[in-house]
Amino acid sequence: MSSEPRTIALINPNTNAATTDMMVDLARETLPEWRVEGYTAPFGPRMITETVALEESVVPVVQLGHQVAEHADAIIVSAFGDPGRTELAEALTIPVIGIGQAAILRAAADGPFGIATTTRLLADSLRRLVEAHDGEERFTGIELTEADPLDLAADPDEQFRQLLAAVRRGSENGAESMIIGGGPLSATARRLRDEVDVGIVEPIPAACELVSSMLHPAE
Known about the structure:
Elements: E1 7-12, H1 17-30, E2 35-40, H2 51-56, H3 58-68, E3 74-77, H4 85-91, E4 96-98, H5 99-110, E5 113-117, H6 123-132, E6 139-144, H7 149-153, H8 156-172, E7 177-180, H9 186-192, E8 199-201, H10 203-215
Helix pairs in contact: 1-10, 5-10, 8-9
């Protein structure tokens, strides 16, 4: 019996390689016994902040997915809108998990939940994503930051403060857990866990846990 570790291909639909490295590190921390390989979209948006960019990122994700599928046991699409996930899942025989999908399934299983995010122009797309995974009955809504997402990406402390306020609003609106909606927001999501009373759902660890449950790796 082979002792080779399982391999996850983590695809970053953004073209920012530093973001890919950060998300891969988090996935490796979640599943230290697995091999996690990161892939950055070779073209498309540097950061997905609106619907056109979300749609434009589908093609590079699908292309990368087909390229890496031969040597991967599963693929994680690591942008919260899950661009290209459906297309890859329909075409490939290995599990293809989106971080948005995984976070919604995880949060909805635990009770009322909301989403805190910086991408105001993706709000409608995120509501549709919740509906696609049958989470609307427990969904309390989307809580948005005030500043431009690119400005917040350049100022982690301000990003933290504004997402903290968004999480607290979600709690006041009845959420028992809040998804921090965005792969590039993963570091801030970690900081928020110790600052609020509601549960913080981190999309990348949620995706890793879902992949693990689907593949049932040997102990």
